[in-house]
Each structure stands twice: as C-alpha cells, then as structure tokens.
Amino acid sequence: MKKKSWGHLLLAFALLLQLAVPPLQTVAAEPEKSPTWIAPINYLALGDSLAFGINSTGEPGKGYVDFLAEELAKQEVLQTSNKGFSFPGYTSSNVLEDLQTDISKPVIGTGSQDKTAALHQSIKEADLITLTAGANDVLPYFKFDESTGKPDFDLEEIQAAMTKVGGNIQQILAKIYQLNPEAQVYVMGYYNSFPHMPAELQPQIAQLVKGLNGAIQGGMQGTPAKFVQTDELIAKDFSKYLPNPKNIHLSEAGYQVVAGAFQESLMNNYPWFPKDVLTAEAKDQSTVVLNWGPVIDTGMIMTYQVYNGDKMVGEVMGPVLTYEIGDLQPDKEYQFSVQAVDQHGKKSMHTIKTSYTLEKVPVEPSVTFTDISNHWAKDVIELAAEKGIVGGYSDLTFRPDKSLTRAQATSIIVRALDLKPKSNNMPFEDLAYYADSTKADIQAAYDHGLINGVNGQFMPNQSISRAQLALLLSRTYEAATGKPFTPTIAAPFKDIQNFAKETQGAIAGLYQLNIATGDQGKFMPNAPTTRAHAAKMIVNSLEAIGQ
Question: What is the CATH code of the structural domain delimited by 41-269?
C-alpha cells in the first residue's frame, strides 16, 4: 500500500474541519440597527383578554399588544415586551390585586432573558405601559333572557360596577406612578361588543359603553395617562372586526385597528427624543446655528446630514454636532432636521426635527425723513416712527403738513393697540374699494366703540378734523384702560362751545393730559389734522394710557 502524501493528509484534514465547523455564513447574526437618538423601549402590557390576545374564536392569538410590539420592533425602538401580566377574564380588581401583592408571572414577549418577572420591578423598568381593564367588571351584570334573547340587567348593579372600575383605575395608576413616575401609560377605551344585537337595543348598549369609558376616564383624572378611544374605529366595520356574534373578542384585523390607535397616540404623546436634542439659534438676521446631541451609539457614526425642509444643505463628520445655515429670510418659518449615517452608510430611521422663525430685527434709521429737519414736530415724528406708529413715504419724506384721513387715523390707533374685530357686521357702505386690512381696522374700531359713521357712511378718505381725532383718542383711552377719562377742568378754548358735550369733554381731557394745548386760546376743532399734529397727539395719548 502506498503512503499518502502530505497533500492528501492536508486535504482530508480540511474536509474534516468543514464537517465539524459550520460555515460562517450560516451563523445567524443580529441584524444591524440604524443609528438612533431614541432610548430603547421596555413595553409592559397589563389587563384582560384583549391585552392578552384572545381572538374571535375564543383561542389565544395575536392581540393589539403583539401588533403594537411588532410595530415598535419594526421602528427599531423596542428592547423588551411582556404581556405576561395580562390574563383572560381579568377585572380591574384583579389587576389591582396583582399590584398590591407584587405578583410574579411567566414572561410572554420578546427581548427578555428572564423566564419570570415580578410586577413591581417590571413597572419600574418599563418605559411604556398599556392597560386594558374594566369590561369584565361590568359584563357579569349584562345578562340575556334565554327565552327572548333580549338583555336583562339591573342598571343600579351596572352603575355600581362602573363606579368601582373608576376607583380601581385610579388606584392602579396611582401605584404605577408611585413605582415609576416617568412611565408613559396608555389606557384602552372599550368598544360595543354586541353590534349584532337588534337595532332597537343599540342605543342602550351605546349608553353602557359610554358609561364604562367615562368611568375609566374618571379614574384617570389628575394623571398624565392617555386614553385611547376604540369604539368609533370598531363600529366602522364591526362585521370585519367582530365577525363572531357569539364572541365579544376582536379578529386580527380588529386588533390591528386598535394597535393603530395606540400607535397614533404614541406618535402624538410619547417623548421619543430627549428634550432639546436639536436646537436652533439665530446668529444674525439671515443665519441660524443648529446644535444637536449625539446618537446613542456614537462609535459607528460617520456623518450627520443637515436638512432645510426636504433639501440637504450640509454634512459634517461624526464628532461635529453643529452647523450654520445662512441665506435665510426673516418672518418665515423653517423646518430643520438632522439625520445620522453610520460607517456602513445606513441612515437613522428617525430624524430629529425643529422649526424656527428668524425675527425681523428693527434697524435704527441712519437718516431721518428728509423734509422735517427744521419742522417743529421733528422729535415727536421720529419718536412716532421708531415706535411704528407712523411711517414715511418711499422717497424718505414724511410730509408733516399733509392732512390725515379718517381711515389712516383709525388704522394707526387700531394697530397701536393691537385691536381685533369682534364681528363681521360692517355698518358702513362706503368701504367697498378699500383693502381688506383697512376694512378690518375700521371693523375693529367700530366693534370697540371708537368710531361712529353718519347714515351708514364712514367717509374714510375725508380728512379727520382735530375735534374728531380728540374724540377718537378719548374713546381709545377708555378702550385701553376699561374706564373713561373724566376731566376735572374745563378746556380754555373758546372755539369748542358749539360742539357736543362728549366732544368738549374729549378736548378737555387732551388739554388736562397735556396732549393738546391749542394755539392762542383756540383749539381749531374743524381744522384738518396734519400728519405732524396727529403724530404728536397719538404718541402723547398712547404714553398717557401706558402703551
């Protein structure tokens, strides 16, 4: 017999190793997760058969808890789930008793290495808790007459059971939050379990469902727990969601709908990201600086991609946690987001987002109006312009001696006080061709009692007289302070004696407050009010009422 060569021996040894050691590609590897800022969620379900997952044939199956856990796992945020403390037939009293005795039960779920768990410790470790309890407290009192098939129940017994449900829910939540003040708790509302009953009985059944859900919500009062409504969702297609008339449990499709309701509530209320994980701060009038926190596992992050809306505007290396975005406009809301990318090019499934609006910073005018340098009202006009009470023209003039119209004066007062219309009952017929903003100002002034027209006319383009402006400012004082200004001295002007008592009182008030002093003993009430005089009187009036 010939000796085997070393080559044959090595080949045989290699074949032996292949038989003894499975190839590397057959070893199941844990799927790589996306980068994330979301802390892993431990999910605990408490309650009755709906939480456990009894299906419409009465057999154990997938319930809403399972579908919710699957969705969280799909989103790569689930760490563990356990529905072992849910049990068919459980009442709210059973759930409360389990809490009081700190019962231990087998774990039914995913992610945990333990075979059994104690309830108190499970609550302490839970980030998300769902609770479904209360229906089994009431159902024993909802009986059917065997001969007629109609419900036969005592309303007082049912009411007492519902009251007990509310008290038990209150105690259950109190104990949960005592053990874990940070837990996010979501409580399921019940649906009509008897939609196949005759139509004439449905109003009574609907009232009972409403009463039970009301009792549950009453027990939740004063807690941060969220109520998840399901009755309307199941009622939309009860033949699909409750296919078995002899069984009150949902089909898989029904449980999926309920899981969707929980998921929607989670999306709206659960604090997925740490507070201030992404912040925006203005650097100047066109630039915002974004700052964010690192993802939970920073070791594999290569870059962070920065988005303005749907457009990526920049990308920084992993250790960098800030980015400047320029060329922005003031008074416009922007939506910024950041997405993490790992060393394999896998992007974070969830992006962190924030909205921001750059405020328009008022710029001090470098030049004054070109036509007021030698005007007696120069200082007060510039003050009025700085306060945003009056403005100039595009050619940088103010035109101080130009008269002010009734519409212009009204708009200035309304905008200075930030008055809003109270109705759409415009009493004036001569505003058809004016801008909507001017109409809104005049409507607000009318609603707040600042103006009156004549025979349905406001005469918006007519110059406002000094007497009319005095009356407008007097009414403005009352609108702003809630009480009229009653002058204690009479005005010394000889040319106002033929005016109405209210107008004379308004002029006297302006005189006493040193808002209008007249000229050589005259107020000139019928004279048009110039833009310069209006600036002075309006600025002084607003200062008098603390605006």
Answer: 3.40.50.1110
